[in-house]
Sequence to fold (324 residues):
Amino acid sequence: MRLTFTIQRFNPEVNSTPYPQEIRLDVGRGMTILDALIRIKQECDGSLALRYSCRSAICGSCAMTINGSEKLACRTSLRKELERHGHITVAPLRNLPVIKDLVVDMASFWEKIRDVHPWLVPSARPSHEGVAVQRKAQDHANPQFHNVDACIMCGACVAACTVHEVSKGFAGPAALAKADRFLSDPRESRSATRARLSTLQEEHGIWDCTRCNFCVEVCPKDVKPMEAIIRLRRASLERGFTQTGGARHILGFTDLVEQQGRLNEAIMPLKVVGFALRGLLHILPLGIKMLRKGKIPNPFGHAVHGLSYLQDFIRRVRRATPPA
Fold:
């Protein structure tokens, strides 16, 4: 079968902007996107630039945008893509500078990984206790790492991240998942864990994630970076990091639900910004719009039916939750 591939081309030495190029190729059953791209380079256009290595979904080198979604070209079936989309469009990973054609500059990606200090900081334990902890960390039946150590650093999650698209300083799903991997390691010292969480409270840290879930959808190794970020947030709250806007939003939300049985959208902004004059002036226009749209509940309205049952349930969950 002869198939047309639409490939985004860009050579910064001669092109001012990327452009699509259509290339026709005879393809066979069972081919992957990477197989086709290699043949295009060998048989049709030797100037095509792409990155690949293991061809076994291990190294992550061949991550690219295929039909609008971030995927590993070596494990993406040509036939399935054609059946699903009716065409084959290939482009480089988004949110990363393009070196040439399908090859992107991963320097910013690796910098963010280094920023989370991706190494173990062990505590000073007696030797016999250290051996026990080491065995616990090596126990494959223990799901303590939540599969975050399966990350192959392909960059697909960063390319799909909607926050990184508008804020290049955001740490990104891969780096934050790496931070969670060390947070879950029983060999990590408590002081090191607290230091990691303290750093992640800053701008571009864990509270910038919008939970769009795209990183989870595109991850080829089922790392679930967004869930790792949620675990980091939960650990931060348990250790008393409650002063950021994101932390105050979560705590305010749960407090309102516990007190009133529902979200009070009139009080929620106050839970986030507090009662400082500058913050109040900032949310005043929002309050006026909410009033006009009928978003402010009647303060004299009836209580939510079954509120006592909800409050009792929340108390039982809190008692059953072990301390950090």
About this structure: The chain has three domains: 2-104, 107-238, 245-320. The mean pLDDT is 89.
